[in-house]
Design goal:
Distance between the termini: 32 Å
Number of helices: 24
Order of helices and strands: HHHHHHHHHHHHHHHHHHHHHHHH
Helix content: over 70%
Number of strands: 0
Strand content: under 5%
Radius of gyration: 25 Å
Largest sheet: none
Length: 499
């Protein structure tokens, strides 16, 4: 069996593992919604292609292929950021093959090759192909147009490998974020250090090289792709086998007993469990730090820049800022507890106290974005009514929706392992759909309200709705608890299978 046949065999094993996943039936329904969302993305990309083609055709200072390639840094940067939402964490189904007589890098190479040929990489063709037909084809001919498109394919695949490298490093240490920050600062430096025309000319030359068939351009792109392949293979192999061998430095930490929470009884005990889980477990700690970082960054953007001063963007970013902790924590409610679900189910009444503790913890965490966004009130970008209404709407309506995921979540999230655990391989598409709904639907609702009523009345409607659901949390949490108990045996079996 040669290397290619081995990679194909390992890929077929991954597909079988996905079909045997505990969330397969749930995912099959959610995938339909994902396809619908992808359809909207395709329509939007085609619309952008038409708009860019019209601009390029009217331009007398630049060619069509140079115009599109001058936008390459923006397109690739957006593609990189979007992959954090749509592309899953690098993971290896490597444990079953560790003692098999196969090359040691085969599993890692299988994942990297699969990431290269993933259909999502070619979604951007709905932007480039219509644009090429409308602007490039009739100006330079067929084969230069093929070269133009092939150059973009290489760039997108290179970008997928760049994302994989960065995501793998960030999974190990959050401080690796400094690498993409430095890289993108360097990429956009010709713009903010000089003029946009200099920036556009620099990256337009890449388009000229691919479209006019310059072999040096293709050689450079292939060289970068090959370099990323071997770097990714080495990095992932290192982390995967280090995790398999449990090579980890441990340091003793003195953790507070949080005795002041004991006054809340059983709920207080679960609050202590939630806090200590974040402090002690690598994945939960990293996720929490990442959420705090995003909230801080968006608060600074809203407070001290003019990028998001219009009504839609300020509302969207404010809603997103408040929803971050819920999207990263409550959307996976009960998944971390899947590691010890059998102990929790010994006294099933414990679950309702656990759900209340999680809800109260994430409501308290909403104070962080609220306090960080006070400068927006001082500068007149937001009103106290707007922030207060979003605070309570998030705590009441959005958290109520996310807490219902406790009924459907049945995949165990590893507390420390990231690369070799089952939970990192299986994807819950239903969870992704709910996250997108929580992220975008509230903004649509507030925009509709603002178009009908005055801002004061619109935000009062959000405020009252949020307060009502916040005050009645014991009712709907008990409802969630009842539904969860009806599915407890199915969920427990799935939690055990995905450990």
């Amino acid at each position: 069996m040669n290397r290619i046949e081995l990679i194909r065999l390992l890929r077929s094993h991954i597909k079988l593992a996905e079909k045997r996943s505990a969330a397969y039936e749930q995912n099959r329904t959610a995938k339909v919604l994902m396809y619908v969302m992808s359809g909207f993305v395709v329509v939007y990309l085609i619309f952008l292609a038409i708009m860019f083609a019209m601009i390029a055709n009217d331009s007398s200072t630049t060619t069509a292929y140079e115009f599109m390639y001058s936008l390459a840094p923006f397109i690739l940067a957006f593609d990189f950021v979007f992959r954090f939402m749509a592309q899953q964490t690098p993971a290896q189904l490597i444990k079953p093959y560790i003692l098999q007589p196969i090359p040691k890098h085969a599993c890692v190479e299988s994942f990297i090759v699969t990431a290269m040929i993933n259909p999502n990489n070619f979604l951007w063709m709905f932007l480039f192909v219509p644009y090429a037909i409308m602007s490039v084809l009739f100006s330079v001919g067929f084969w230069p147009t093929v070269g133009f498109l092939f150059g973009w394919v290489l760039l997108i695949i290179i970008n997928s490998q760049w994302y994989m490298l960065v995501r793998t490093l960030i999974n190990d240490r959050i401080w690796w974020w400094i690498i993409p920050i430095v890289v993108y600062a360097a990429v956009f430096s010709p713009w903010y250090l000089g003029r946009f025309s200099t920036f556009a000319d620099l990256y337009g030359r890449i388009g000229e090289g691919t479209t006019l068939g310059n072999p040096l351009t293709y050689l450079c792109l292939f060289g970068i792709l090959v370099a990323f392949f071997f770097i990714n293979r080495s990095i992932q192999f290192h982390y995967v086998y280090a995790e398999l061998a449990a090579v980890e430095k441990t340091t003793m930490r003195k953790v507070s007993q949080f005795r002041y929470l004991e006054r809340f009884g059983e709920v207080g005990e679960y609050l202590k469990l939630e806090i200590k889980s974040i402090i002690r477990n690598k994945n939960m700690r990293k996720q929490f730090i990442f959420a705090v970082g995003i909230v801080t960054a968006f608060s600074l953007l809203l407070s001290f820049t003019s990028i998001y001063d219009d009504s839609y963007n300020s509302n969207f970013l404010a809603f997103y800022n408040f929803a971050i902790f819920g999207l990263m924590g409550l959307s996976r409610v009960m998944c971390a507890e899947g590691n010890y679900i059998d102990g929790l189910m010994v006294h099933k009444e414990n679950i309702i106290s656990l759900l209340k503790a999680k809800y109260y913890f994430y409501v308290v965490m909403l104070l962080l974005p609220f306090l960080l966004m006070i400068p927006t009130i001082i500068q007149g970008k937001c009103t106290i009514l707007m922030l207060t209404s979003i605070f309570f709407f998030t705590a009441g309506v959005e958290y109520c929706i996310l807490m219902h995921m406790a009924i459907w979540n049945k995949q165990t999230i590893p507390l420390n392992e990231k690369f070799v655990s089952k939970g990192s391989v299986e994807t819950n598409y239903f969870q992704i759909i709910i996250n997108f709904a929580v992220l975008f639907v509230p903004v649509i609702v507030v925009m509709i309200l603002l178009s009908i009523f005055s801002p004061t009345i619109s935000y009062l409607i959000l405020l009252i709705t949020g307060i009502l659901l916040l005050l009645t949390n014991s009712i709907w949490i008990r409802f969630i608890y009842g539904k969860l108990m009806k599915r407890r045996y199915e969920n427990m079996e799935s939690f055990r299978a995905t450990r």
